[in-house]
Design goal:
Beta-lactamase, single chain, 9-stranded antiparallel beta sheet, alpha+beta, 2 domains, 29% strand, 8-stranded antiparallel beta barrel, Lipocalin, globular
């Protein structure tokens, strides 16, 4: 949190089906100095999609719809990617064939004053107008290829309203939140009246934390739920218990299994060789410390969240923060590894992080004639050279990503230049083009 300037964060763990850990770290509001807790409220962003998917599957249980139904049976979308109709299931698993149209990204960026792009989309009717030419944007037939599509989950929210004859928010409250006693979870500005509401913050590139706001309104089914880690532990318990919570049946076990099924392959290939899949509102990652990890992240820029489940261990984690900084999914994965009595440093992301950090620092040529810094930005090292008149930054690409190989390279317009790190006892050297540089100090 200190490194990435996050103001506040809350975390809770369910182990063997029971809540065993919950607490907050840092500030929920910097102006007042108020601390976070396990009851602090944050927007969970796209973790909301699992609630939307569950609602659709509940309605299928009631025979009010079938996920094999064409979307046009409910909403006049009139879009046929590559000539084929989009079904409800294609929106659930992001396989409509339409790449992300970025309505949500544009809206969030405008709210946080990061762009002058303005898309006046306030409801599903506006969204359908916005999407009217997206058939020409299609890259695959429905069901063939995964493309994350926020717009699809807004349409699912409208289908829920049409079929249930309730507002989307009312349906979720009545059929998921209330039965789970998630009484401090909100979809509206009402959350701001809660004494535990966390101020959302935009964190700038220089670490400044600017108070922000959420995008309320009518379109909430892709990422609009505000909750706490304590409330979310009940949701986690229900998912891990195949649809039941303290004697209440929220959904059939078949629906929960459908949410966690590896429906369609995602383009990501993990460094350990495993592939990632998407189900319904959740994605599936095999091979996490020898287990299947079911998860989803969420971000609305000024707030981030992560839900992670290990069904075979009846164990899960929820992480929320009031800003974007260190990825909440990595914090959640570390917590899962810890509570499963595994060494979290065996998780590939932490191996990579620790290895890259071991090479960062200030490097100098012979007699200090030239100086530059090696810094880590996410999963890449960068060489940075800055002085009064010159500002140069170039990423170092690893020959064998995900390993501890110290061989890197940079691309120029016409060539590939090797960059090698050499560690000898207490010295670290860098060989780059014509230069041999020695690290003079370590800086994470």
């Amino acid at each position: 949190m200190a490194d990435s300037k996050l103001p506040g964060l809350s975390l809770a763990v369910v182990l063997d089906g029971d809540p065993v850990y919950s607490r907050g770290f840092g500030f929920r509001d910097l102006a007042s100095g108020a601390s976070t807790s396990a009851d602090t409220l944050y927007c969970i962003g796209s973790v909301t999609k699992s609630f939307t998917a569950l609602s659709i599957l509940q309605l299928q249980e009631q025979y009010k719809l079938n996920i094999e139904d064409p979307v046009d049976d409910f909403i006049p979308l009139n879009i046929k990617p590559k000539g084929e109709e989009i079904k409800v299931k294609h929106l659930l698993n992001h396989s409509s064939g339409i790449p992300a149209l970025a309505y949500a990204e544009a809206a969030q960026s405008h709210i946080t004053h990061e762009t002058d792009v303005w898309m006046p989309i306030s409801n599903t009717r506006d969204l359908i107008t916005f999407m009217k030419d997206s058939e020409s944007w299609a890259d695959a037939k429905p069901g063939e290829k995964w493309f994350y599509l926020n717009e699809g989950y807004i349409i699912l929210g409208s289908i829920i309203e049409i079929v249930s004859k309730q507002k989307y928010t009312d349906y979720v409250i009545n059929n998921i939140l209330k039965p789970l006693n998630m009484n401090r979870s909100y979809f509206t500005k009402e959350a701001e009246k809660d004494p535990e509401f966390a101020t959302p913050y935009t964190i700038t590139s220089n670490g400044e934390r600017i108070p922000g706001s959420y995008t309320y309104g009518e379109m909430l089914s892709d990422g609009g739920l505000i909750s706490s880690v304590n409330d979310m532990t009940r949701y986690i318990q229900m998912l891990l218990n195949e649809g039941k919570y303290k004697g209440k049946k929220i959904a059939e076990s078949e629906s929960i299994h459908k949410m966690m099924k590896s429906d369609i392959i995602m383009p990501d290939i993990l460094y350990d060789g495993n592939k990632v899949f998407y189900g319904c509102g959740l994605n599936v990652r095999p091979g996490f410390l020898g287990r299947r990890l079911v998860q989803h992240s969420g971000s609305v820029y000024v707030s981030t969240a992560y839900l992670g489940l290990i069904p075979e261990e009846v164990t899960g984690v929820m992480v929320m923060a009031n800003g974007s900084g260190y990825p909440t999914n990595l914090i959640g994965e570390y917590a899962l590894g810890t509570f499963l009595n595994e060494d979290p440093l065996n998780i590939p992301s932490f191996k990579t992080e620790n290895f890259l950090d071991s090479l960062t620092g200030k490097y100098e040529a012979y007699m200090g004639t030239m100086k530059f810094n090696v810094v880590r930005k996410g999963g890449l090292l960068n060489i940075e050279i800055k002085d009064t008149h010159y500002d140069y930054s170039v990423p170092l690409l690893q020959d064998s990503p995900g390993t501890t190989s110290k061989k890197f390279f940079v691309y120029t317009m016409d060539r590939k230049i090797p960059v090698d790190f050499v560690q000898e006892e207490d010295k670290t050297w860098l060989i780059y083009e014509r230069f041999k540089m020695q690290r003079t100090n370590f800086s994470k």
